[in-house]
Amino acid sequence: MCAGPADVHGLFETAVRLVDRHCPWARSIHIVAPQPHAARERIALHRLSHRPVVHADQEVVPEPVMHLPGWFRQQYVKLHADLVCGVEQVVCIGADTLVLDPIAEHDLYRDGLPLLRFFRYDEPNPHLPFERTRVLNVAAQLATQPDRTFLPGDFVCDVFPMADSHLHALRSHLDRLHGPDGLARVLGALGQPRRQDNRTGEWTMYAVFVLDALRDSTALLLADRGWAQQIHTAADLARSAPYSAHIIHFVHEPGGTAAVLADLEKSGRLTLWA
Description:
This protein is α/β, with parallel strands linked by helices. It has one domain (about 5-265): Spore Coat Polysaccharide Biosynthesis Protein SpsA, Chain A (Alpha-Beta Complex), CATH 3.90.550. It is about 40% helix and about 15% strand. The protein is built from twelve helices and eleven strands. It has helices at about 5-10, 10-20, 35-45, 55-60, 70-80, 80-85, 125-140, 165-180, 180-190, 200-215, 235, 255-265; strands at about 30-35, 55, 90-95, 95-100, 110, 115, 115-120, 160-165, 220, 230, 245-250. The strands form five sheets. Strands 4-11-10 form a three-stranded mixed β-sheet. α3 (about 35-45) links the parallel β1 (about 30-35) and β2 (about 55). α7 packs across α10 and α8 crosses α9. The radius of gyration is 18 Å and the shape is globular.
């Protein structure tokens, strides 16, 4: 989990507690933060089955990467998550993402390989063309054709399983294409992030590499509405059963953190335990 300064004072604390409760198969929880002391203080108040390991950004990324904008630096960290955690299977979870229901390991992995999910929407939505453009941009960075990933398009989910073998192969592939630490070079060439930025993306890069560059046998599934939902605006909360999914990613927190948590508790989807 990557936790930026705004995340630490947002849903981060609740996100960690829910992972601890609803992901009992997790052998450890690792958090990477530019302000590690603040992150430790937020979670030190709670009794957790797994005491999270909190890393400072500079402990896990090389010095040149520290100069990248925060969003790009987080992408770098996530695509090195196997090295940060020292495990073969890793699940990246957003600090603004709440796992509201128990998730089993078989929901994320099959025969040791991660399950890749793509997303669709209830009505015509400009977001899918936006994500397909991201696929094209990432495919160019990987020098591959997105034969299997263009139509699915949207792979963005902040509960994302990965395998260390895939991550190692991805980094090596980028090094061959772009030179030493190729991922840092790709991200550094982008300059500053844009407000709506589909020039790259860690989840899309992983999916395009695994499915199109590696031609791996990793399963590709359509994520149903019960798996994950995203909250962008207050309008999303006005729809029917906005909290019905197992996973809720709050791209924005309408009304602020306290209002979001109160609304979740009122809906019966969250019990704020002591």
